[in-house]
Each structure stands twice: as structure tokens, then as C-alpha cells.
Amino acid sequence: MSATSVRRAASIVMANSAAEITVIYPLIELREDTISPLRSWTREQTLARERYRVIAVFAEADRAQAAAMEPLLGQNDELLPVPDRSFAAMMNAGIARARTPWLVMTEGHCIAQPGSLDEVVRWIETNPNAQIGNFELAHVSRNIVNSMVARWYDETLAQWRTPPNWEHAISGGFAIRASLLDEVGPMEPAFEAFSPHVQSARLHSRGVKVTNLPGAAVIHLDERSMTEFYDSTRRYTRGEFIARSQIDPAFMERHFGDPYLWTNRARLERGTARAMMRALVIAARTNPGRSAALADAFASLLGEAAGGVRLRIALNRLMLAFYAMAIERLPMPDETRFRHFLRSHQRAARLAQLQWLHGNPMPPAAVPAEGRRAIEALGPGDIVGVHGLEEFQGRRFRWTEAVAMIRMAPRQTACELRLETGGIRGDPLASLIVVVIAGRALPPKYCTSDDKGMLTVHLPAPFAAAAKGGVVLVCEPLAPAREGMPDPRTLGLPIISIAIHTLP
Q: Which helix H or strand E contains 139, and what residues bound it?
């Protein structure tokens, strides 16, 4: 750090007494304009300079770049080094140095509009109970990719603001009462680009209200190429899966939904996929009239059973390369191009998920023991082939797919497997095609139900002993879309709880 920076840092404690706001600016992901974003905070705001300060945080590896930008800083501003380029680590370091009652958080590729900090002060003064205020996110579209990324951002923010979703703090620009961060702690650098969203969720879970801050805005310099956009998607998705591996599953699903691959990652194991495919073949043989209805379920398992995760990773990489070329270079209507853009974003996220799961195999599951367990207490190793949690008449449940596997410890004596469906799909026996264990169909006489929707699967001793490989249920596929509902899923049985009871 230069002598100028040292003198400036030494005077900060005295100067802070007049400052009300600290802007935390990370010198990372500056994209095509390395000067305008920082200058927009330090030189171009209409708010009196003594009322705020800027902490520009940089990675040690970027010291030369930071030194070149130092002339943009004001007398009370500060250049703050951190060991690496982690966005979360940079923001945490800046917050720890701020010592003002309010903070403004932003990203390195955001240009503040001149009156933004004046609007922050006005908002604070007129809203004494204010907690978090989001800036407006504007965009400048210089090419095809810019324009699509801008539209995607706008649609994503609109979705966050629509119930039952919740309003996130927008990383590009928001004001926050500093004391709120003392309650939830710092961002977690290990969560990469997902870390701000975890912190925002923790604030939301404490009842913190996020509102729009009128008049305050930043221009977000969007990704310029599909490669850049895929990289942003990869870092966010990888961070999300890291967070899911460390944070309470109920918290994550409540705030961020239920990624299909995360919940059903046991299906990526070839043995599991093959066992489920064998069950489908048996179902088709024993019920030929239902073969056509089960074809889609068979096809969805084929790639996992044949090639495993590596093949799916390779195919997704190939498809992303094709999408990038088509979106950036081929002539097509705008709406068609945007549809391809959305599909490629989903595929980029799926590739990142597969790569993380390939590098982080699921540990051996603790198979369900004796007794009843609610569906939300069952993990990916317990039941395979399910959708996200839902609620019906105050009770939480998951829909299975047309084929689902329940894992249980093998037993030397007969037992019962009780599946509570709550009658959500009527009599579960009417939907159940076959139960398969170790490649053998369980005789239908061993499956019964009652008027409350409890499906009881009686496992004689030989079947109970063979259950180590899983109990596979094949059901008549239910497609809500065929009934005109906006739900593209294929459903099996609704499961509220699963109970295992050893028989005398």
C-alpha cells in the first residue's frame, strides 16, 4: 500500500465521525470498464463527500491494478487488501472496517447513478424503521448477449418480488442497516457466488424486510459472451450445492426450492438406476397395457444406467458449445433466441450440478430404521425419485415419480412398509402397478390400503432379506399437464410419511 494510503487510513477514525454511510466496493469482475464503477461512487455522487466514505477492497494479486485506481479515492476513502479474490471475503473485510450505521453494498461491474446516495439518505430519514433497500438495476445492451442477460435479470428480479417468493437483497446495489449483519454473521466465502443469497435468506428468516429504494440505481455491466454467462452460472450453482451440503436441508429448501438432481442424486449411481429400470421392465411384462405410459420413465433412466455421470457431463458440455455458437452467431427471431438462452442457462446449471456431484459422491446412506419418519426427515439416500416438498391441508408431502425407490435395511424376519399418502391421489392401490425387490415382483396380495390412503406393503421374510437393494414402486404416471394444469412433471404417489415395522 502506498504512503498516501497509509496516511489516509490513519485519518479514517477521526473522519468517520461525520460519515453516515460506507460504500463497500469490491475490485473484482470489473468486466469491460475498470474505471467508471469506482469513480461513480467516489467522484460523481451528489451527496456531500463528508457524509459517506468508500472502502475499495482488492485482492493481493491485484495490487498493481488497485494502485492505479487509487487517485479516484477521496480523503476519507480506503484501499483495503485481502488475501484472495473471493467476493464474500472482500465484502466481509469491508464491512468489518466500515464503522458507520449504514452500508451500501455493490459489485465491481456496477456504475452508480449520481443521485443514488442522496436518495439513500432521504430514504433513511423518511423511513426510521428501514432495514434493507434495493437499488434499481439498469442495463446497457451493447450486443446480443448483453440484451438477453438484461432481460433474464429483469425477469428473475420480478419473480423474486412475486409471492410466494421472497425479496432478495440485490448484490448489485442495496443499502442495509449495519447492525443487521451482526445478527446473521459474515458471508461464507466457500459458497462462492451463492454466498450473498445465503446471507439474504438468513436475514429473511429473521423477518428482515427488503424494500425498493426509490431513485437509487446502478447500471449493471452484464456478461458480454455466453462463455462469461456460463461461468457466472457455474460459480453460483457450485456455491449453492456447497451450501446445501453444509446447511440445514429444511432451511435451504424453504428458501431456494428443491433442485431435482440434489434430491435424487442417489439415482446417479448406476446400480440404483439399473434397479429402477429393471422394475419398469417387470411392470411392463406384468401389465402390458401400461407399457406405453411407462416409456418416458424408462427413457429418463437410460442415460444414467448406460453412461453414468461422466457421459452426461460430456453431453452437456457439447450442447453448451452448440448453444453458445447458435445464440451468438446464427440469425433467428428474438423470442426464439431468448428461449434458447434460457435452455442453455438451465443446461449450464445442470452441468455445474453434475460436475459437483461427480466430485463429491454421496456418502453411504443411513437407511431408515424401525418406526415412522415424516417425508421431510428423509434424505436423498432414503428415497429416490421424488419431487420437492409441498403442502396439502396443512401436511407436508412429496410426490414420487412414476418409479421410486425406498431404501431400507434388510431383515431376517417379515416386516411391513407403510406409506402414508393422505388420499391425495385417491386410493393408492389404484395407482400402484407393481412393487419390485431384487428383480422380483411382490405378489399383489401383499399390498393393501385403507380409507385414509395408507398403503401397506407386507414383505415376507425372503423379500425383507433382499430389500438391501431397495424397494421399487412403479405407479401409473399422472401428468397434470394433460388436464390443462401448468405442471410439466410426471407424478406417482404422494408420500407424507414412511414407516417400517417388524412383524412377529
A: strand 132-139
Positive or negative, the CA dihedral 158, 164, 165, 167 is: positive
What does the DSSP 8-state code read for residue 366?
-
Residue pair 80/56 in contact (Cβ under 8 Å)? The answer is yes
Say what the pTM is.
0.90
* Residues paired with 52 in a beta bridge: 21
In DSSP terms, 474 is beta-bridged to: 403, 434
| The three grid cell numbers given for residue 383, joined into one nine-digit string | 428415497
User: Cα separation of 353 and 471, whole Å?
Assistant: 27
Q: What angle do CA 126, 127, 132 make, to 5 degrees?
A: 130
Q: End-to-end distance of the chain based on CA atoms, in angstroms?
A: 76
Q: Which helix (H) or strand (E) holds 306?
A: helix 295-306
The Cα–Cα gap between 268 and 354 comes to 9
CA dist 11 → 16, 58, 69, 75 (Å) = 9, 20, 20, 9
The percentage of the chain sitting over the pLDDT mark of 70, rounded to a whole number, equals: 95
pLDDT in tens, 403-441: 999 988 888 899 999 999 999 999 999 999 999 999 999
Condensed to tens digits (0 to 9), the pLDDT of residues 290-332 reads 888 888 888 888 877 766 788 889 999 999 999 999 999 999 9
Interatomic CA distance for residues 168 and 159, integer angstroms = 10
Q: Alpha-carbon dihedral of residues 186, 190, 195, 199, nearest 10 degrees?
A: -40
Count the Cβ atoms, other than its own, within 10 Å of residue 346.
Answer: 11
Q: Is the peptide bond before 164 cis (omega within 30 degrees of 0)?
A: yes
